[in-house]
Amino acid sequence: xxxxxxxxxxxxxxxxxxxxxxxxxxxxxxxxxxxxxxxxxxxxxxxxxxxxxxxxxxxxxxxxxxxxxxxxxxxxxxxxxxxxxxxxxxxxxxxxxxxxxxxxxxxxxxxxxxxxxxxxxxxxxxxxxxxxxxxxxxxxxxxxxxxxxxxxxxxxxxxxxxxxxxxxxxxxxxxxxxxxxxxxxxxxxxxxxxxxxxxxxxxxxxxxxxxxxxxxxxxxxxxxxxxxxxxxxxxxxxxxxxxxxxxxxxxxxxxxxxxxxxxxxxxxxxxxxxxxxxxxxxxxxxxxxxxxxxxxxxxxxxxxxxxxxxxxxxxxxxxxxxxxxxxxxxxxxxxxxxxxxxxxxxxxxxxxxxxxxxxxxxxxxxxxxxxxxxxxxxxxxxxxxxxxxxxxxxxxxxxxxxxxxxxxxxxxxxxxxxxxxxxxxxxxxxxxxxxxxxxxxxxxxxxxxxxxxxxxxxxxxxxxxxxxxxxxxxxxxxxxxxxxxxxxxxxxxxxxxxxxxxxxxxxxxxxxxxxxxxxxxxxxxxxxxxxxxxxxxxxxxxxxxxxxxxxxxxxxxxxxxxxxxxxxxxxxxxxxxxxxxxxxxxxxxxxxxxxxxxxxxxxxx
Length: 605
Hints:
The chain is of the alpha/beta class. The strands form 6 sheets. Strands 1, 2, 3, 4, 5, 6 and 7 form a 7-stranded mixed β-sheet that branches. A 5-stranded parallel β-sheet has the order 10-9-8-14-25, with helices on both faces.
């Protein structure tokens, strides 16, 4: 019986269509008839699975791929109890529905799109493990046993015992290297699942990853997009929070969520002991060397971790001050100075604006075309339907928004995004015309699909405009397009011979791949074994093929046993931390986790 039928609500034509499909689908799965189940999809249908069927994050494209997965996994997964959770909707011949299901080890939620009587897209996501549910709601701890007992240990005593023992007499099951938003979100998920976890970070306090950036830094994504798991931002918080607000929130979150978090801790090296099935990790904690032996190692070092510092001839001979954008603390010291910022993406724009606000004479060097999206337009045309005050008012919770977002396969995503950015071009035509007139080289991605696809494919090449573009358009920030030939003692020389005099140079030249940390901490051999992190294999600029269908190596098993990568923006850190946590919990409890579709390595680290 469906959840809708139990509620006694009348069933619509759309409901009946979905229920009929689910009935046929469940019947085929129960019979272990993979070809029949795959035949219920359109020829060009998609099934995106988040851990539920594959113990992996995989998108299956077409009936053959779907059938092959089911043929391999059905006996182990044992899916059943497919139900329609909410009234289905139908618009322009497309039926959409929220569904629930179970497997032998998990309860799941999904989203289904039907074209006629065939599935166009199916999302299945594991939500909890049977018998290992989070200790929340009715399963929360009592906290105290009423009565009188000698030797009772208080909450503070027990907390201090745990802090003293973990990493010494008690080894963590999971060690998370990197204590920014990604590591903290994952730590919170694992805490709720009862997985002994230690998060380590080199900074003095949680949140310093934000506090130590340039003073003007604010989130460019809106507050509804950026909540952490379990504990949303208060409803009075600004739409775009300042970096120090985020830093303080992360520090508070670590304390309230009772995470085991070691600041002032540097990871020196790590190696996997295959015989013991554990990592040997050498740390330096506040000057004290320690060796940890976790079973699972997570690199949550972020996409903005290893600065990509260029190697221009003459850099060492520059007579002024120079630094990478990651080390830019603010423009106060540069009033009246000539500043050259090399780069034209988010950090470059923010730093140019910061320098201009503090009275510097600023020139931006644009080396390649950049996508610009005005913040207001991005919120209204792209994010507003899922992450906004109106979305919340219409019943779209953060979790529901995340699942809707996840329900669109990456292969289809450009089709969904191109109309959005076409509308943005039209809406902001005057804005773009003025930027072009100033000499700014604009693009909307190789296939006109805009900002988010650039982010997924390469993690760079865009700026969400919160004011700096206007300074470029009106000439307040000078713009020079071209490639850098060399750095002189007094400035920057471009390949066309133009020389830009400078007292300070900021290299806003981006960051290296996350698996650069694998090379640095483990070995280049392991980094090459797992390959590139991030990117889809779209064969667009900076995202070489072949097509992989999911972000490389993120939140899922890699070619190195017990090594995981966790990163992305706040939205991704929140949403995908659930699936990574479930995979780690299942392994800790000894559940069978037959991984399907372990990605091939096509590009070295």
